[in-house]
Structure formats: structure tokens, C-alpha cells
Design goal:
- With 332 residues, the protein is an alpha+beta fold.
- The chain has 3 domains: 37 residues; 151 residues, Rod shape-determining protein MreC, domain 1 (Thrombin, subunit H); 45 residues, no CATH class.
- The strands form 3 sheets. It has a 6-stranded antiparallel barrel. A 6-stranded antiparallel sheet has the order 8-7-6-9-10-11, with no helix packed on it.
- Strand 6 and strand 7 form a beta hairpin.
- Helix 1 packs across helix 2.
- The radius of gyration is 30 Å and the shape is globular.
- It starts with 5 loop residues before the first helix and ends in a 25-residue tail after the last strand.
- The C terminus is likely disordered.
């Protein structure tokens, strides 16, 4: 062991705090000057530390699961009785569910309903709850065979076995950060109850998100189911989020279905974008001259953007736009 002299150690102790303050100030200035550089450094650091977080989380989970097994052995008889009662109730609802399924299939067949394409998804391990620039977020480690690029992964919906937990806001090659629905920066349009009344669910940095901006004269009802809404295009419709509850201040909040305090695995769903793809269609429009000395007919080339799923109709040759009432050329 190298022994340092007393004056050197005293000088080192005096310089430690100023040096750390200068490094911190320099880091803040670099982050302010180039936000993209700070994001890339943070994503790279997360990718570098994700395996270490996973290695440290293994023994902790083993201890928690071991303690849970011992506790269940002590109350095995009570759990068996509760499971028998729950099984009896489920058998009663099985016939109702089968009848509703048959009715739903018949209605879909009559309406010629085409179900939407299933989204791509994969399972990721939650390795850390770091917070960082977000108070309520978790870091997940991506599987090596996911095959999803970071650009496509940003915006993916994260769910556990019960309901929506959040969305991916940052993604790297091996890790991603999920912003939980309880974070102050979370804003999710939701639908309330069977009627699907619109509202906005906002995070509070607490255990229960709040409800704001519901329809006039239609306040949230206690016990209403909260589902995601397609308003804004951020979330697909119909994903379970939680249940409406009024707190001690008589304010409506949402009790999340997801167990946000004990997340171990998350499923990341990459839903396709609903925005139409635009293709360029070149059309030739014939314009009749207005003066006698000008040529009788002039040709003008215009570019029309139409959705890729629709067939473009070329402009008709006749000296004017087709149809009456001032319709646009090219059938757009």
C-alpha cells in the first residue's frame, strides 16, 4: 500500500470538492449546449451498465422469491379454500363468456369485420429503477434477438400481466427507458366506463394518476374501467389501465392495474403507426390561354400527394378539370 504524506493528503482533501464542482458544472454546460450529445451519452451509459444491473438484481429476486415461498407454505390451507371459491365463480361465468363470444362472432360476421394486425412484441427484464431526468421510470434490458431498431422502439407501449405500465421514451442497442404512467410528465388520453367517455390521465409522481378534462356534465364514476383512447395517436384504443377511485380530497384518481412497485418483466408492444404513407403522383393539367396572342393550350405539371393505399386517378385530357363544382384534378 502506498503511503501518502500528511500535507499531500490535506491538499488532496481540499481540492476534491472544487474539482468535483467544476466537473459537474462542465457536464451541465455540455448538456445545455448539445442536448443530443447528452442523450447519446446517457443511452450509451445505460447500455454499458444494464448487464451489471441485471447481475445485481438476480440475488435480490432470489431472496424475495425464497421468502415468499416460506410465507405461502404457512398459509397453504387458506389459499386453497380461496382458490376453490374463485374457481366456482369462474365456472359460473364460463357459460356467460361462451355465449357472449358466440354473439360477438356472429355480429362480426354480419358486419364483415376485419381485425387489425397484431403488433410485434417481446419481453424485457426490468433491471433498475434509476429515475434520472424522470421521477418514475424503469430501465429494461432488451433481448439480443429482438430485432427492433431503437428508432422503432421509442413510443412502444409497455405492459405487465395486468395492464399498461408506461411507454418507451429512450432506447439504445441493449436497453430502453420506460416512462411509467405515474410520472409527472405522463399524459395519456383515456376512455371511461362502458360509454367510453373521454378524459385525460396525468401522472402525479405518486402511486395514483389523476383524471382531468372529462366531458362536461359527465364526471368519472366510482369503479369505472379506464381504457386507453386513440385520441392523439399515442396509444391504441382499448388497453386496460386501471379503475376510477375518489381519494380523500374527493378528486378522481386512477388505481393502476399494473403493479408498478414490483415490476420484474414488461412486454413491449410496437404498434404500427396510423399515419398514411404519401406517394408522389405526377399529373399533367391542360390550361387554356386567356389572351388571343398566347398559344391556345399550355401544359402545366403539378405534383399531387395522395395516400399510398388509394389508387391515383390521372388528370383527364380535355382542357379543364374533370367534373363539375370545381373538383380537384387527378381525382384527389
Amino acid at each position: 500500500m502506498i503511503r501518502l504524506s500528511v500535507p499531500f493528503r490535506q491538499a488532496l482533501s481540499r481540492l476534491t470538492l472544487p474539482v468535483m464542482l467544476m466537473l459537474s458544472l462542465g457536464t451541465v454546460l455540455v448538456g445545455r449546449a448539445d442536448q443530443g450529445l447528452a442523450d447519446r451519452l446517457r443511452d450509451g451509459l445505460n447500455d454499458l451498465l444494464a448487464p451489471a444491473y441485471a447481475l445485481m438484481a438476480g440475488p435480490v429476486q432470489a431472496v424475495e422469491q425464497g421468502g415468499g415461498v416460506l410465507g405461502h407454505l404457512l398459509d397453504l390451507q387458506g389459499e386453497n379454500e380461496a382458490l376453490r371459491a374463485e374457481n366456482a365463480k369462474l365456472l359460473q361465468w364460463q357459460a356467460v363468456a361462451m355465449a357472449l363470444e358466440a354473439q360477438n362472432d356472429a355480429l362480426k360476421s354480419a358486419l364483415k369485420y376485419v381485425p387489425p394486425a397484431a403488433p410485434d412484441f417481446f419481453t424485457a427484464d426490468v433491471v433498475a429503477d434509476l429515475g434520472g431526468i424522470y421521477a418514475r421510470s424503469v430501465l429494461v434490458m432488451l433481448p439480443s434477438a429482438s430485432g427492433v431498431t431503437p428508432a422503432k422502439l421509442v413510443g412502444a407501449v409497455a405492459m405487465d400481466g395486468r395492464g399498461v405500465a408506461g411507454r418507451v421514451v429512450e432506447a439504445g442497442d441493449r436497453s430502453a427507458r420506460v416512462l411509467l404512467i405515474t410520472d409527472l410528465n405522463s399524459r395519456i388520453p383515456v376512455a371511461l366506463g362502458v360509454q367510453g367517455r373521454p378524459a385525460l390521465m396525468t401522472g402525479t409522481n405518486g402511486p395514483e394518476p389523476a383524471l382531468l378534462y372529462w366531458a362536461p356534465g359527465q364526471p368519472p364514476q366510482e369503479g369505472d374501467m379506464v381504457l386507453t383512447s386513440a385520441a392523439g395517436g399515442a396509444f391504441p384504443p382499448g388497453l386496460p389501465v386501471g379503475v376510477v377511485h375518489y381519494d380523500a380530497q374527493n378528486d378522481p384518481v386512477v388505481l393502476p392495474l399494473a403493479d408498478l412497485d414490483a415490476l420484474r418483466l414488461l412486454r413491449l408492444f410496437c404498434y404500427p403507426s396510423n399515419e398514411p404513407e404519401l406517394t408522389t403522383v405526377h399529373a399533367v393539367v391542360h390550361v387554356t390561354g386567356l389572351r388571343e396572342r398566347e398559344p391556345a393550350v399550355k401544359k402545366k405539371v403539378v405534383v399531387i400527394y395522395v395516400p399510398a393505399a388509394k389508387a391515383a386517378v390521372p388528370a383527364q385530357e380535355g382542357g379543364h378539370c374533370a367534373g363539375r363544382g370545381g373538383r380537384r384534378c387527378g381525382g384527389v
